[in-house]
Every structure is written in C-alpha cells, then in structure tokens.
Design goal:
- The protein is an alpha+beta fold.
- The chain is 41% helix and 11% strand.
- A five-stranded mixed beta sheet has the order 2-4-5-7-6, covered by helices on one side. A two-stranded antiparallel sheet has the order 1-3.
- Helix 2 packs across helix 11 and helix 6 crosses helix 7.
Length: 279
C-alpha cells in the first residue's frame, strides 16, 4: 500500500484523482474504472485528516510515515479496550487531564482501593489508593518485578482536589508561582486525581537510574503503564521531566503511543481527545 505521511495528509490529497486510473486514497487495491470516477474514501480517513490537521506542529512531527488504515486499525484496538473498561459512573481511563482540561472539586474516582504494604510492593504512606483498573495493573506489574528480584515502592497515588490544592499552594509559597507550575499541578488538573497515576520510589531524579527505576522503564508498558512527563517535552506536557510518574492507560494504548506518537503520552491523549470530540 502507498505510504502517506499521515501527520500532514489532507482531505484534498485523499479525495482527489487525476486523469489516470489510480488506486483509491484509502489504500484500497480496487482502482477507479474511469478517469473521471472519484475513488471511494473511507470516511474515517477523512475524519483522521481533519483531526490530525488540528494537532500541534510538534505532535505532527512526532508521527512517523505510515498507512492511515493501519493507524485506524490500531486506534480502534485502543478505543475497544477503553470501552471494555468503561463504567457509566466514572471517567474513561484515557480521559485527558492537563493544564487545559480539568475535573471539578467534587470528582472522586469510584470504588477506590487502598494501596497498603503487602507481599507485592511497599508503600511510603498509609493513605494511598487507586481505581480498580490501575490497582489490578499495579498487581500485575509488581508480580513481574518480583520475579526479577525487585519489590516496587509506591510513594503517591490518588490525590483529592483539596489535597492537590494544599500541595500546590505549599510549593508556590516555597518556590514561587512560576517555578511551582513547572512541577506541580493546579487542583483539578492532576493525573493523580483520576486515581490512575503512581509516583514510584524516591520521587527524585536519580530514581530512574536505580535498579527499580530501570526495571520499571523497561517493563511498565507491558502492563499498561506509561511515563507521563518525559525528558525534553516540558513545552508539550507543561511539566518538567518526572522519571517516577507513570499513568495507567492500558497495554493497547501503550503500544499505540509507541508506534504512532514517538512514545509520548501527551500527544496520544490529545489526539484521542480530539478524535472523540470530532464525533
């Protein structure tokens, strides 16, 4: 099939045909029968073109050459896996929350499960909790780590709106607003409020170089965990590099972001948000 730089293709490219007999822009092997026949276009490819055109230039640059139908196939695997975990009384696991997209002060994830010291992991505090989906994923990640002789340390999980408000204000008082906003979320904009994020280990820059940190970096995606704030993307995520902060997004989404979005979670979540809004 014809390769298309999907970050830049447009509806006109997909829909146009010339004087010659050509393959359809959707990548179909079926050719137009006459020189005046407009080839059929998969409406989802037209939608894909519209959504991609709305993304930031940095996001477009991150998307590799690829076939749009292959992209859509992978996308639907992600959406189907999210749908399988959907609960009518709570937010979807791939809900976009960042400096521009927030939740209210009254939002609390449903059925939070306490995260206590046990045979699978250690905790730094006794007031930790996670949504059921991410709790199960933590169990799976921790079992795999133990098989390699590593016991994970869970240092931060769900944070309420009021907790984040106090934390953010403390950092502002300590370092000033400009610096605080580079490493701390305003209340209502933290991934921690979703009950889907974990800070591992010491919550320091050197954690990524520890045996535990290296293992998590190598294996987290196999169990649906994604690094939220990678090095060199502060202008994209809004936050400084945090080697310890991982969000549960599911295995399919981890594969999708690695294959199509240069393994940057923010790019993928922004795309998914735009795709759903386009409906």
């Amino acid at each position: 099939m014809k390769k298309i730089f999907i970050a830049l293709f447009s509806i006109s490219l997909l829909c146009s045909c010339n004087e010659k007999t050509v393959a359809s822009s959707a990548g179909s092997s079926e050719k137009a029968k006459t020189k005046n026949e407009v080839p059929a276009v998969n409406p989802e490819i037209e939608k894909l073109a519209r959504v991609l055109s709305s993304m930031t230039d940095r996001c477009k640059e991150a998307i590799p050459n690829g076939n749009p139908e292959e992209f859509l196939s992978d996308l639907h695997k992600v959406l189907d896996s999210e749908k399988a975990l959907h609960r009518d009384d709570d937010l979807d696991i791939l809900f976009l929350i960042d400096k521009k997209h927030s939740v209210g002060s009254d939002y609390v994830p449903k059925d939070l499960i306490s995260v206590k010291n046990n045979n699978l992991w250690n905790v730094s505090r006794n007031d930790l909790s996670l949504r059921p989906e991410s709790y199960e994923a933590l169990e799976n990640l921790s079992r795999a780590a133990l098989e390699d002789g590593i016991k994970l340390m869970v240092s931060s999980t769900y944070r309420s709106y009021s907790y984040q408000d106090k934390l953010f204000n403390r950092y502002v008082a300590q370092d000033g607003l400009e610096l605080a906003e580079r490493y701390s979320a305003r209340p209502g904009t933290s991934q921690h409020q979703l009950g889907m994020a974990i800070d591992f280990g010491s919550i320091t820059d050197d954690w990524g170089d520890t045996k535990m940190g290296k293992w998590v970096y190598d294996h987290a995606a196999d169990y649906g965990w994604s690094l939220s704030f990678p090095r060199g993307y502060e202008d994209v995520t809004g936050y400084m590099w945090e080697c310890w902060h991982f969000r549960y997004i599911g295995k399919e989404a981890c594969l999708f972001q690695k294959k199509w979005f240069s393994n940057v979670q923010q790019f993928m979540l922004e795309f998914l948000h735009a795709w759903k809004q386009a409906d």
